[in-house]
Amino acid sequence: MEKFTLNNGIDKPVIGLGTYPMKGNILIETMEKAIELGYSSFDTATAYKNHEEIGEVINNSIVAREEVFITTKLSNIHQKHENIEEVLKRSLSILGLKYVDMYLIHWPVPDYFLKSWVELEQLYKKGLVRSIGVCNFHEHHLRDLIEIANILPAINQIELHPLLTQKPLIKFCSKYGIKIEAYSPLARMHNYIQNSDILKELADRYQKSIPQIILRWNYQNGVISIPKTQSHHRLSENISIYDFHLSNEEMISIDDINMNFRVRHDPDNCDFDKL
Ligand SMILES: NC(=O)c1ccc[n+]([C@@H]2O[C@H](COP(=O)([O-])OP(=O)(O)OC[C@H]3O[C@@H](n4cnc5c(N)ncnc54)[C@H](OP(=O)(O)O)[C@@H]3O)[C@@H](O)[C@H]2O)c1
């Protein structure tokens, strides 16, 4: 599995497994298969309520802990009402792990996210997390954060796919060395993706699937992807993206699909209490 280096010098695999909404045996079997196939990065969150299964797989695996990259997230409710170090320690206890590799603020909860960031910096300094970052931050959230931060986020995990290419935000983050990680990278295989003539044509040209074309496009753009699948066949498909190359024109043709269409919430227009 190829890796990208983050702004604090640690490496993160180009493809990770998104685990929402998997739980229970489905998640355990999917993760075991993923590890067998070469996955080492797993994306979870307190809100997904699947830490126990994830910890069980990691702790029972023959793969060393240092070889695995675990990302989890601070929930909105916890930003508002709790001591964040205690929240993280509870997550670590359920995971059965001494540290996580990435701790992200799940959403930029107004009035709280700057305070949360200061607390995440402390967790990083104490070594409870190997890196810290954010999710769902627009440029204006990041500008506010940069004003008060001593440490810049290693990652901004955002909704990103050919229907929502996020070019201005990618440019802004790259200026500050903040790596972009694409969630819902396949736009949950929305009909607009499945029926896209451009994606179908590229898939035919390279004898690849549409998801492989999209994940390759992200890779060539320097973007990490965390597709979710519980199909063993698709787990393998989603990491088989290194044996072809999209030309500049082909990359631009995918960029041009953009229609600023979201399959998830807009961080400026959502009910943070329900997320
Ligand atoms: N930070 C945040 O706020 C946030 C928000 C949303 C998601 N996330 C993270 O991002 C991860 C992925 O996002 P997502 O689940 O919303 O969307 P996604 O990865 O774009 O799409 C998942 C869907 O695509 C299907 N799929 C996956 N690979 C496929 C393939 N090769 N061919 C055909 N279908 C395929 C899956 O079905 P099968 O399982 O049946 O294959 C599933 O229905 C989540 O699991 C979560 O970890 C983070």
TrEMBL record:
Tell me which Gene3D superfamilies the record gives. Answer: NADP-dependent oxidoreductase domain
Q: Which family does it belong to?
A: Belongs to the aldo/keto reductase family.
* UniProt-annotated catalytic positions: 48 (proton donor)
- Pinpoint the NADP-dependent oxidoreductase domain residues: 17-258
Could you list this entry's UniProt keywords, alphabetically sorted: NADP, Oxidoreductase
GO-annotated molecular function: oxidoreductase activity, acting on the CH-OH group of donors, NAD or NADP as acceptor
Residues recorded as binding substrate, renumbered to this chain, are 106
Q: Which residues does this entry assign to the site Lowers pKa of active site Tyr?
A: 73
InterPro entries in the cross-refs:
AKR, Aldo/ket_reductase_CS, NAD(P)_OxRdtase_dom_sf, NADP_OxRdtase_dom
- What name appears for this protein in its UniProt entry? Aldo/keto reductase
